[in-house]
Structures are given as C-alpha cells and as structure tokens.
Amino acid sequence: xxSTGLYSQHRNNRGLLHLRNTLIALVLVIFAxxxxxxxxxxxxxxxGPAVSTAGNMRTIFPKRWTLDSYVAFFDFSPYSLxxxxxxxxxxxxxxxxxxxxxxxxxxxxxKIPFKGSKFLFGLILVAMMIPYQVTQVPLYILVVNKFHxxxxxxxxxxxxxxxxxxxxxxxxxxxxxxxxxxxxxKLDGCSHPGIFVRIVLPLSKTVLAxxxxxxxxxxxxxxxxxxxxxxxxxxxxxxxxxxxxKFANETLFAPMMAGAxxxxxxxxxxxxxxxxxxxxxxxxxxxxx
Length: 289
Prior knowledge:
Helix content is 69%, strand content 0%. By secondary structure, it is mainly α. The chain is flat and about 75 Å long. The mean pLDDT is 84.
C-alpha cells in the first residue's frame, strides 16, 4: 500500500510539473508572438499596393499581394538607394572606429598602469550614466554651429567613433587576460603596441565581434542624430529617409513599410549569422576585472 501511495504521488508530481511547463511555454509563446507581431505586420504591409495610405491599411494581410511598394520606394526619391549606402558607410565607419580606438583604450586601462587611470575610467563610467539625449544639444552646437559640418559624413560618424560603453566592455575583457602573459612578452622585448597586436587582439575575437555587432546595430538604427545634422536628401540615412514618406494629410504606408523591411534586412542577416555572439554579449561585460 505504501509503495502504491508513493507511485500515485510521483505520478501527481509529474502531472503538475508537466502542467507547469506547459503553462510556462504557453506564456512564452504569447509574449514572443506579441514581440514579433510588429515585424510580421511590417513585412506583410510592404507587399500591399503602392497607393495605400495609413487610412485604409487596416488589415493584417493586404488584399492584393504585389511588389509595387518596393518599386515605389526606389522611385520615390533619386536618393533612395543612396540612403541605404549612407547608412552602410556610417555604420561600418563607426564600427571600425570603435573596434580600433575602444579596444586600444580598454587595453590601456586594463594593462598599462598610469597616473590618473582610475579617475579617467571613473569619468567614462559617469559618461555611461548620462542619457544620450542630454548630450545632443551641446554636440549639435559644436558640430553644426561651431564647426559647420552639417550634411557631411564626418558629422554622422565622428560623435560615435568611440563610445564609453565599448571602452568599458573592452577594459573588462582585457582585465581577464593573465598579466604574466603580458609580462613574459615584455621580457622578450615586445612593446605594448606589439603585445596588443600580436597577443591581445588574437585572444579577443569574441569581445571585438560583440562590440562590432552592437555598434553596427546601434548606428544603423539610430534616427535622432542623423535627423539633426542632415537637411539635404542626399545625406539622409535610411532611417531618416523613411520619414519623407509621411505627409501632412496622408502617408505612403506600403512603400514606407517596404523601406522599413529593407532597412531591417541587415539586422536579420546579422542576427542569424552571428547568433552565438549575441548570446555571449549578454554576459561578456560581467567579467570581473
């Protein structure tokens, strides 16, 4: 009887565990569907007729599937294709700047003792806490009013050429590299630039990849700063260019969704191609220094 009771209790526990797992899975599916629905709606709407506006585009699926909206997107402006090119130029340049300069700064903070290093690194941490929007006014005054660099690639790239977060990320990772390895290279007559290039960088492919991915996504998707420093159609990035599809009384909804889908395509490719680095990027900054 005792064994029968234990078996019955074990079956009940298994049943409750299965029910709990099913409920958890159901909740996760619901939240995933809610998160993915805007992307799904964007893609399906992009295949609607090019004449559709926000006023009559209320259905999830277009009544007529067509590629006219994609054609209309490229025909809308002579600079439509250039907008995508501007985004690529800006994003790739920002990635290169951050990978080079942020990694060099991170290595200096982590492995080169110098006077005032803790104070300077503290300033970088403080800079991370300042909201991005707060710095836009003084930055705009410097770039546009002081140096007159509006409607240039320099204005789009320079303010993000190196970020405090990437310096922090690189410093935290480089701090985990064994110091005896650095000292051994010094004894062999290798300078700090040589150590950085020949030893540190080959060991840091993961953090550099995470840094490049996050920087590219941030630069590609940003709207506010390019909107501030560009006033000519030829210098718009794709995110700023999409706003031109909205007028006072109507919106070219389907062509705008076609442009939004094209702008999101690099993010989809980047995520699925480098998915493991996205997952590593969640915890890589938590390495104890």
